[in-house]
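Example with several molecule types.
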Amino acid sequence: MRRNLLAWLVLLALALGVVVAGCQAPSGPEPTGTAMPLAATASPTPPKTETIAILHTNDMHGYVEPELIRVGEKSFESGGAANIAGHIAAFRKEYGGKVLVLDAGDTWQGTFVSNKSRGAVVTEMMNIAGYDAQALGNHDFDWGQEVLKERATQARFPFLAANIVEESSGKVYSGGKPYLVKSVGGVKVAVLGLGYPGTPAINKAANVKGLKFLPGPETAAQYVPALRKEADLVVVLSHLGLGDDEKLAASVEGIDVIVGGHSHTEIRNTKRVGNTIIVQAGSKAKFLGRLELVYDREARKITRHTTSDELLSVVSGKIAPDPQVAALVTKYAKEAQAIMDRPLGETLVDLEQCYEGECPLGNLIADAMLAARQAGPRPADAAMHNNAGIRSRIPKGPVTYGQLYAVLPFDNVLAAVDLTGEQVLRILEKTVGGSRTSNMVVAGMTYTFDRSKPVGERIVTVTIGGQPLDAKKLYRIQTIDYLVGGGDGQDTFKEGKDIAYGDPTVDVVAEYIQKHSPVSPKVEGRIVGR
Amino acid sequence: MSEKVKVWVDGKEDTFFLGLRVRHAIGYRAVKAVEQGRARVQDADGNGVDLDGALYDGERLFVVHRKGGPGPVNASF
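Resulting structure tokens for the full complex:
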């Protein structure tokens, strides 16, 4: 109700000639933009058509360092922040500055060099490259709202998230703005930002505390009519994922372009739903999207646009990488390497790689996982990690983060789910029935097995919290995202309920070692079998 | 928003928790094939999809072996 009233107020303000106005409460944050009075931007006889370009990335996930690709004797770089910035500069020149540079979110989390700086290196690169706006993806909340606000302060462009509102006031999240309006070659372009509505379900509760994530189509339907009147073109910068972008285009009239993300889709040939063009540029800074638009001022619409080869593979050799960004990345990478080499603590025993059953390294990992879920309203009863996911050993002595990363190299994150005792039993049956390396290491529970028994009877005893397993009881099990996705053929995990994701497993174990050093895990009868 | 999404992998329907990624849906062997450059993942339109792309309800994924390879990766699954 209040929103409808606000929408009418905005329309009234627009009718009175206000060029840029907030689509929120008058006291709320004002949208950012470089919109100017028409008299200042329009020439006396503007050309009938104007050609502009939207340059776009999404889901960069902190991939600021390029990947070196070797082909025979030759090699080249794929991706990387310096190459992206170099391409943006080249396009900016080609289009005479008539470009809009956008990122659709999930920008910082995903690589050690970026994680270590909490995304600061990426935002700095985007400042240098001259980005105009970024949407807020689900992973952009991974380090909490304080860090996000630090990035917002650092960025010389706005974070757009019209559908992320503060529960207490109903206003758009104070770390972002709902939209911006920018004049690009005299064409007024409105960019409305939409975050991922499922963020609270897949991020830690503390990271999104006090925020409400509204559905994309409903939010867009509230803003687009007013933006349509204010601007020549309406762009939605979306982290909804391709499926929901298509639904948005089909359900909300008046959107010219959706620049998307979240599903990491490489849309080489632009997609069209009704009158809306949908683009998305893969992920991990490997592609830069370039959507060329020819806008007809008389017809007040796009008359031509890129339909094929919209994605440019970001590789070295085509253009010069941006030297300022290259130096920035080198500096941050050196600092990150120092962290890799830094000791976390010490182990008093050799931590051998696990192949079957119980082992000290497996117990250490499972203990750390269980400890991580003891705080908060729903502590876990037990933890389970697959032996196959433990990939290296750590000899007795100092333990570095780099060594631990070699042990847990898959970037899995913790995931807690509710499972019945019967489901836990099926998981363990599967565990002892597969290859030897499919064994599960555990904490907070024990099990014994006998492989000579018939299938379905090989698990002899199970205890959780020191009590015999109750087939009907619901247990909170801490595991990893790989397994709740059915990894290692463990489909039973997929039957779980009330999932809650946590931090990367490697970081959880690193913190545990730091806290408990020196560690000396041992085999203590958690898993006994033959 | 539902806690789970329905996804088709090579025509086979499956259900996954919201928040899981393409790598979780296609299976370990296909992930290895993609990581080693022997296969790629595509959506219903033939667009490439990264292993870490978020799964969405109704998504249809296909694991396609690179030209010259020994055939569809999932054929042996």
